[in-house]
Design a protein that fits this description.
The protein is about 30% helix and about 15% strand. With about 230 residues, it is of the alpha/beta class.
Length: about 230
């Protein structure tokens, strides 16, 4: 099964056909007979998934030191990680336990990527309905490391753990957060020393549609600030 993952096999039939084409060399790999789909299916059903998870951790621990000196494009001595998730669509009739929508199944793979070599340092697979922010409870931040994530991971109680572990995080603010609201307000506000003549203000008391109000506000913002001073 490790061979199938490394060679990007897509199904049990694909694995069987690929190994069957190299039957003369299978003896040296320890195979005494032909590999069949039923044998692979029984192995998947009987073997614990933790075997492959532990083997993946061994490979990660072996690969990360090999890329320790690889440049990242930024002058940073500390570790730099990117945290994100991806939704993997599944067939609902084959995976009824992974119900995601009314007629759709899916699982979500949360990945913590070490940008020095692009090696995954942490992978957690959950149901497709699990929110991204919940994965912050599944790993311990590395002291002194930088974590880059999107606004879906904004949870100040969970992010406080990064401060306790002396780690740093970079994220975009949510539109509803206090920082985002203040930024939008300051971006359209005129200088405090400039006063607006009442005749230049839009007549909000008149019944207008939303589009008309936006258009009048845009025209008002394009007026020269010097002409509106007393």
């Amino acid at each position: 099964m490790v061979f199938a993952q490394l060679t990007y096999r897509e199904s049990l039939r694909d694995i069987e056909a690929c190994l069957g084409a190299m039957r003369a060399k299978l003896y040296h790999m320890g195979f005494r007979s032909r590999v069949r789909r039923s044998t692979l299916a029984d192995a998947n059903d009987a073997h614990d998934w933790r075997i492959y998870a532990d083997f993946a951790q061994v490979l990660i621990a072996t690969a990360r030191p090999l890329y320790a000196a690889e440049p990242m494009g930024v002058e940073l001595e500390q570790s730099l990680y990117a945290l994100d998730s991806t939704t993997i669509d599944l067939c609902l009739s084959l995976f009824p336990w992974a119900r995601f929508r009314k007629h759709k199944a899916a699982v979500k793979m949360h990945t913590l990527l070490d940008l020095r070599g692009n090696i995954p340092a942490f992978i957690h697979i959950t149901n497709g309905k699990v929110h991204d922010v919940n994965v912050l409870d599944q790993f311990l931040p590395e002291s002194g490391a930088f974590y880059v994530m999107d606004r879906g991971y904004i949870d100040f109680e969970r992010l406080y753990r990064f401060t306790l572990e002396s780690a740093f995080f970079v994220s975009a603010p949510k539109p509803t957060s206090c920082c985002g609201g203040a930024t939008r307000t300051l971006s359209i506000r005129r200088p405090a020393c400039v006063r607006i003549k009442p005749s230049f203000l839009p007549r909000w008391n008149r019944p207008r549609s939303t589009q008309m109000r936006c258009a009048r506000l845009a025209m008002w913002m394009r007026r020269p600030a010097s002409s509106s001073c007393f």
